[in-house]
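Case 314 in the screening queue. Each case pairs one protein sequence with one candidate compound; here the compound is magnesium ion. For every case the pipeline is the same: read the inputs, emit a complex structure as tokens, and attach any notable structural observations.

Predict complex for case 314.
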Amino acid sequence: MKNAPTAMKFDKKGIPLVVIGLSQAGKSSFVKRIMTGKFEETKPTMGLQFETTDIGDARFDIFDLGGHISYRKTIWESYVKLAYGLVFMIDSADPESFDEAKEEFWRIVDLKDNRDEFLILFLCNKADLKESLDLESIINHLGLYNLAKKENASYQFFKTSMKTGENVHNALNWLKNNTAKLATKRKIDPLMFMIADIDGFPLLEIDKIGLEEDPSLLAGFLAAIESFSQRLFGKTGMLQYMVSGDYKYIIKTDDQYIYSMIIAKDESQHEARREIEVLNELVQPMEDFTMLESIVVQVLNIDLSEYVIQKGFK
Ligand SMILES: Nc1nc2c(ncn2[C@@H]2O[C@H](COP(=O)(O)OP(=O)(O)OP(=O)(O)O)[C@@H](O)[C@H]2O)c(=O)[nH]1
Ligand SMILES: [Mg+2]
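Case 314 output:
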């Protein structure tokens, strides 16, 4: 398997945040501090750890990813695409790790689509150690001033210590204030979402209003599919959207599946596109579909009780 969707846990829904950085930086210690308010023993993270917590009024789904090199091209990349915000942590007392951290940081930041607004909280941890470098040297060493060129990123740096708790509160406050705004802006509320195989057999369909109950919706949907199949005949990996009446229709196909979504006209097709691209990444390498429903719920961030679900048509 290319990615590791089966390692994901999808039982809650909140604002998705990922915590990444080289091993030993203190990522799990940070998450422990958020959850318990204390500095506690940790072990190296195998794959990932998932936690849900409320910070102020906002609910967060925190994905604490292992920093070992074997996770960086697989789990990191899939989860970063899913997340609204990225916490990148370094060990500020270990300048020998800075070059590698720099390389990984920029590789990951550059993965983010330019149209996608996202947050970066950069934590220079282990500030309690006497070898810890000052913030300015770290910003210079990692070229972090270049973040100003990323128009879609809001970012902040802190020196923190998970041991003493220094700046943990300030970092969380920054996250809370900035993610809440972003989540409201980006939230879409799909009326319909479907994954079908390339022959058009649906694997999963979720509907808010039932296509047949609204003839204009159904007509728009059929028109979108029609225009889509004409334009893209023989081509795969394409994503297209069209507006018709009160709705937007977004469709993507790869060489195995067709993804389609209907949202209200005033909602962001960029967010719809992001969600479909993330699903595509996660679904494509899947060998069975037992996790499909929970992955869809997580990525679309929906309350399933508002939907009619149909699955496994084949
Ligand atoms: N002195 C000091 N030690 C810390 C601090 N934060 C974490 N540590 C220690 O650093 C080590 C690694 O911490 P973890 O939180 O497990 O690191 P991680 O980034 O999750 O590592 P991986 O899961 O392997 O990627 C542990 O021994 C922690 O106790 C800190 O602020 N100060
Ligand atoms: Mg860890």
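Case 314 observations:
- The chain has two domains: 5-186, 192-311.
- The pocket of magnesium ion (ligand 2) is lined by residues 27-28, 42, 45, 64, 66 (CB under 6 Å).
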